[in-house]
Amino acid sequence: MRKVNEIFYSIQGEGYFTGTPAVFIRFSGCNLDCDFCDTEHQSGVMMSDKEIINEIIQYPARHVVLTGGEPSLHISHEFVDRLKKNGFFVQIETNGTRELPANIDWITCSPKAGGETVILNPHELKVVFTGQEMSQYDCFNAQVFCLQPCSGKNTEKVIEYILAHPKWRLSLQTHKLLNVR
């Protein structure tokens, strides 16, 4: 059984897959406590793998995003296998503080303050910019480096940084800008 905050169908609003139709499985609970978190961790329903899959196969997209909270607290190699056997491309959005099953198709690591990041080779590194020292991310070996304003409040500073450091690309929370879920 896994504690699920919500399951919904929308477009991916941020990062490399922005605009991609996806089924989101938002898990409850996290091992960090970020000021800007948009998940209500006390909410949630315990669901079996079968119940989760029965819910997500109702949607036409075959891109699933495991998010949270911190989804690594709730998933296993077997769970990811079940998703893949049902035809899903599996993306995870993680803070990177815990090891992940090796069978995930796309790892988006978004390190947060207060946690030691152990995932240094994600497919995508997505950093929420709060003014922190950016050299701490030099140790990451990612295919894509995304820098995201914190709740849209510091977009100009993020663009300035990206223009000076072109390995980074801009990630906006387009779902919030467009008022979609």
Automatic annotation (TrEMBL):
Q: Which CDD domains match?
A: Radical_SAM (cd01335)
Q: Which gene encodes it?
A: queE
Q: Which cofactor does it need?
A: [4Fe-4S] cluster; Mg(2+); S-adenosyl-L-methionine
Whose protein is this, by species? Bacteroides sedimenti
Q: Does the keyword Transferase apply?
A: no
Entry binding sites for S-adenosyl-L-methionine: F36, C37, D38, G69, S110, P111, K112
PANTHER family (alphabetical): 7-CARBOXY-7-DEAZAGUANINE SYNTHASE
> Oligomeric state and partners?
Homodimer.
Does this UniProt record's set of keywords contain Iron-sulfur? yes
Name-wise, this protein is: 7-carboxy-7-deazaguanine synthase
Check the record and name the Pfam families matching this protein.
Answer: Radical_SAM
Q: Which residues does the UniProt record annotate as the domain Radical SAM core?
A: 17-181
Q: In which residues is [4Fe-4S] cluster bound? A: C30, C34, C37
Q: Where does Mg(2+) bind?
A: T39
Could you tell me what this protein does?
A: Catalyzes the complex heterocyclic radical-mediated conversion of 6-carboxy-5,6,7,8-tetrahydropterin (CPH4) to 7-carboxy-7-deazaguanine (CDG), a step common to the biosynthetic pathways of all 7-deazapurine-containing compounds.
Q: Which family does it belong to?
A: Belongs to the radical SAM superfamily. 7-carboxy-7-deazaguanine synthase family.
According to its UniProt record, in which pathway does this protein act?
Purine metabolism; 7-cyano-7-deazaguanine biosynthesis
Co-factor binding comment: Binds 1 [4Fe-4S] cluster. The cluster is coordinated with 3 cysteines and an exchangeable S-adenosyl-L-methionine.
For the protein in the UniProt heading, the enzyme class is lyase
E.C. no = 4.3.99.3
Query: What does the record give as the reaction this protein catalyses?
Result: 6-carboxy-5,6,7,8-tetrahydropterin + H(+) = 7-carboxy-7-carbaguanine + NH4(+)
Keywords noted in UniProt:
4Fe-4S, Iron, Iron-sulfur, Lyase, Magnesium, Metal-binding, Queuosine biosynthesis, S-adenosyl-L-methionine
Residues noted as binding substrate in the record, renumbered to the chain:
I11, Q12, G13, R26, T67
